[in-house]
């Protein structure tokens, strides 16, 4: 059931974003460790709202969670623009150069301002799918606005030539496709007339 998570306008809201890579790990009697990456990645989000003063303010959030019917539906979570905004001086009009296969971690890009810089830690997204990626190395584009970006994980979906590269910045944030981690929606009054809420959901990479 599509929908967009309500705007987080509550005071003192805490947001924790976790980046996770499932890894198979086995140990032996000599304490050596063997690991095997599954080549997967996803974010999870934990939100703590310590206090909402009225039911009128609390009800839209409660109803939105009800609408999702537990884990059965995904929704769009607009990442607040103050959370992990891009540090790089690039303008968000960049394009993918050539077709790029799924699983690739190096993406050729053009259309950037001459000598622009994309910084390690910048969040990016492509128009063909909703997965969000992390740039792992600084990139300085050449005088023609061309450069190669290294991603934290392989592309979930193949890219086409001239596909737009979207950025997460203070002026315009990205939306993460998510799914709640629980089938329960707990009504949590702190005391008469005041409410609190803690939510956990994860990036839906299906």
Notes on the protein architecture:
- The strands form 5 sheets. Strands 1, 4, 5, 14, 15 and 16 form a 6-stranded antiparallel beta sheet that branches. A 3-stranded antiparallel beta sheet has the order 6-7-12, with no helix packed on it.
- With 206 residues, the protein is mostly beta strands.
- The protein contains 1 helix and 16 strands.
- It is globular.
- It is 7% helix and 37% strand.
- The mean pLDDT is 90.
- A hairpin with a 5-residue loop joins strand 9 and strand 10.
At a glance:
With 206 residues, this protein is mainly beta.
Keyword list:
206 residues; globular; 37% strand; mainly beta; three-stranded antiparallel sheet; six-stranded antiparallel sheet
Counting helices, strands and paired strands, the structural category is mainly beta
Question: Count the helices. How many?
Answer: 1
Q: End-to-end distance, in Å? A: 15 Å
Calculate the mean pLDDT score and round it. Answer: 90
Count of distinct strands: 16
Shape: globular
Helicity range of the residues? under 10%
Largest sheet: 6 strands, antiparallel
Could you tell me the strand content as a percent range? 35-45%
Rg over CA atoms, rounded to whole Å, is 20 Å
Order of H and E elements: EEEEHEEEEEEEEEEEE
Low-confidence stretches: none
Secondary-structure topology with pairs:
Layout lengths: L13 E7 L2 E5 L5 E5 L4 E11 L2 H14 L5 E5 L16 E2 L9 E5 L6 E2 L4 E4 L5 E3 L4 E2 L6 E4 L14 E3 L7 E6 L8 E3 L2 E10 L3
Antiparallel strand pairs: 1-4, 2-3, 4-16, 5-14, 6-7, 7-12, 8-11, 9-10, 9-13, 14-16, 15-16
